[in-house]
């Protein structure tokens, strides 16, 4: 058995016919931790934003965040399942490898788990094709799609990997456009890796490296983009990147993310920035990005070549006539995460969000009553049914839902709890735990009957929820 264990039965194919050339780049700022033990999966389940049960469903790797107790991002990771039983590799920024190891050991308590830094034993490589995004076009249509949309949890169909000669090859779990992640023993040369990729490999295309390519897509990564203790998971597009589960149960720091999902909207997002030319002066983290009126509508996060990232107020930034940071002109666009809108149900969700304004005006609002779920014993008084409750801090929802004032919040703070909604098919009242939301609300029975119209990421989730309800 080699360093990575048994050889996987399935293989990734990178045919040269798919692209004229691709870039193979070593990520020298990445390190690996190895976590092994019979309780390794359960241990990680209580610490990360994603669901370790995806591995039981066949996933080869997954993207996740570690949060601090205040719900802010401590670091982002990619977790790989080894072919050895109960062994996982955790890829993280090299600068947080030691703090993350200490964090894990603090919560290990008496579990029989080994947590080791692999140091320079294994190198992390990335293999990607940037050519499809070389035109720099910015789509300004449907400017309000992003605000208020929190995407359903789930992972991509990343169930394929290849392990040969101490080289472990995986699809990136965040986006197909990010290409392939490679873990290789440090003794293995670049040319040996290229031999197994079966594709034309170059060092760079138009001086575009991996960091600039990430920024062009709007994807943050590592301590430079996500300083520990500052970012919020949904604001850094964790849901777009299939890195958060809203159904898995408790984990460290989950309260704020869960509350945002159930009761609020996301008005700020990390968004790609494009500079007309490479700036000739430095721009600092948190520098204000202002519009033509001089109003601050975002904060600068990072730059590579002419591409950057900014934490932006979505509506204001997309409606701005001009944007500048430190007197340097720039443009902003929506994150290029098109794989999210690849199914017919995604189209339904987008069309539904486009009609939000008129729906607010036309909805039949009901004030006070008793909410009763048709599938479980939940029965609770609600204070409002509709899209926009007058007491909910100007929040608007993408469906007519049953809303109650949060009994645990301070008076007049506008904090609310969403109890549920009516199923879009059978019109029965259903709570959040007995339903699936994907553009519209569906009870588990209707979701199961129409599962062929839902993306594959939700199939296992629906089956598991039905199994839980039946047990």
UniProtKB/TrEMBL annotation:
Segments forming domain CAF17 C-terminal: 267-335
Primary location class: mitochondrion
GO biological process, alphabetically ordered: iron-sulfur cluster assembly
Any Gene Ontology CC annotation: mitochondrial matrix
Highest taxon of the lineage: Eukaryota
Sequence ranges assigned to domain GCVT N-terminal in this UniProt record: 33-105
InterPro entries linked: CAF17_C, CDPF1_dom, GCVT_N, TrmE/GcvT-like, YgfZ/GCV_T_CS, YgfZ/GcvT
Residues in Cysteine-rich DPF motif domain copies: 371-463
Keywords: Mitochondrion, Transit peptide
Listed name of the protein: Aminomethyltransferase folate-binding domain-containing protein
Annotated organism of origin: Heterotrigona itama
């Amino acid at each position: 058995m080699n360093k990575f264990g048994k050889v996987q039965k399935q293989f990734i194919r990178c045919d040269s016919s798919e692209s004229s050339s691709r870039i193979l780049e070593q990520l020298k700022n990445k390190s690996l931790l190895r976590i092994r033990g019979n309780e390794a999966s359960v241990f990680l389940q209580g610490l990360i934003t994603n669901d370790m049960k995806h591995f039981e469903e066949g996933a080869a790797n997954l993207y996740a965040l570690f949060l601090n107790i205040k719900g802010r991002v401590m670091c982002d990771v990619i977790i790989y399942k080894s072919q050895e039983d109960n062994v996982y590799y955790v890829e993280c920024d090299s600068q947080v490898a030691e703090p993350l190891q200490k964090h894990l050991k603090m919560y290990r308590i008496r579990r029989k788990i080994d947590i080791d830094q692999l140091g320079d034993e294994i190198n992390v490589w990335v293999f990607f094709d940037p050519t499809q995004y070389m035109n720099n076009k910015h789509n300004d249509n449907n400017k309000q799609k992003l605000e208020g949309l929190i995407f359903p949890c789930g992972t991509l169909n990343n169930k394929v990997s290849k392990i040969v000669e101490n080289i472990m090859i995986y699809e990136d779990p965040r986006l197909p456009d990010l290409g392939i992640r490679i873990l290789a023993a440090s003794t293995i040369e670049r040319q040996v890796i290229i031999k197994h990729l079966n594709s034309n490999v170059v060092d760079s295309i138009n001086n575009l490296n991996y960091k600039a390519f990430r920024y062009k897509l709007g994807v943050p990564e590592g301590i430079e983009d996500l300083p520990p203790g500052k970012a919020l998971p949904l604001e850094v597009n964790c849901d777009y990147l299939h890195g958060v589960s809203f159904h898995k149960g408790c984990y460290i720091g989950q309260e704020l993310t869960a509350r945002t999902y159930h009761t609020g909207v996301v008005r700020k997002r990390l968004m790609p920035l494009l500079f007309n030319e490479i700036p000739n002066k430095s721009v600092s983290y948190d520098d204000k990005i202002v519009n033509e009126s001089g109003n601050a509508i975002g904060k600068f996060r990072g730059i590579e070549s002419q591409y950057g990232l900014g934490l932006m107020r979505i509506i204001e930034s997309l409606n701005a006539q001009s944007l500048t940071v430190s007197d340097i002109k720039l443009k902003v666009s929506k994150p290029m995460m098109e794989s999210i809108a690849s199914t017919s149900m995604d189209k339904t969700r987008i069309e539904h969000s486009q009609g939000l304004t008129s729906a607010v005006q036309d909805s039949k609002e009901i004030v006070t009553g008793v909410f009763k779920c048709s599938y479980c014993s939940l029965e609770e008084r609600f204070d409002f049914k509709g899209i926009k409750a007058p007491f909910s801090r100007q929040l608007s929802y993408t469906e007519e839902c049953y809303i109650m004032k949060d009994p645990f919040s301070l008076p007049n703070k506008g904090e609310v709890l969403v109890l549920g909604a009516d199923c879009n098919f059978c019109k029965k009242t259903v709570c959040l735990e007995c339903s699936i939301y994907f553009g519209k609300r569906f009870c588990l029975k209707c979701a199961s009957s129409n599962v062929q119209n839902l993306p594959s990421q939700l199939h296992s989730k629906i089956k598991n929820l039905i199994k839980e309800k039946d047990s």
